[in-house]
Design goal:
alpha+beta; Aminopeptidase; 4 helices; globular
């Protein structure tokens, strides 16, 4: 499936939770064994949330933008991986950040995903660390 068959919406937690939360639980909790209480946090309520839909209108990916310019909780269901969904989500969140005046974006990428973020202009800052038993690296994007 090509990128053109996907669409992304962005909204607050109240409007996006019902579709975003199951994707995050599937990817992070079920696939990656992140504790559920660690995955869902109080920051969701103050974030902008993006959801990607496939051509059939099914939600296949999500991500969030925190008020301080951090992007996180990027998750794409297995059925849609490798089709450009992550890039569409990331670009939508970056556009929202830029529109509100953010000059620096930051994220903690799972280390294996660093090349994906580098392709979108993020650069590695600092050393690798572990969160929920998974290797991560901090990355930044400057406008």
């Amino acid at each position: 499936m090509s990128e053109q068959q996907y669409r992304v919406t962005v909204g607050d937690w109240a409007s996006q939770k019902a579709l975003s939360q199951p994707i995050r639980m599937e990817v992070f909790v079920q696939e990656q064994n992140v504790p559920a209480e660690q995955e869902m946090d109080q920051m969701d309520a103050v974030c902008l949330h993006a959801i990607a839909y496939n051509g059939a209108g099914q939600p296949v990916g999500t991500g969030r933008l925190l008020p301080d310019g951090h992007i996180g909780r990027m998750a794409v269901r297995k059925v849609a991986r490798g089709a450009g969904v992550g890039g569409l989500l990331l670009q939508a969140l970056m556009a929202q950040a830029h529109a509100r005046g953010d000059r620096v974006l930051a994220l903690s990428a799972q280390s294996h995903a660093a090349p994906f973020y580098e392709r979108h202009g993020f650069v590695i800052e600092g050393d690798e660390f572990y969160e929920a038993g998974i290797a991560h690296i901090n990355m930044v994007y400057r406008y």
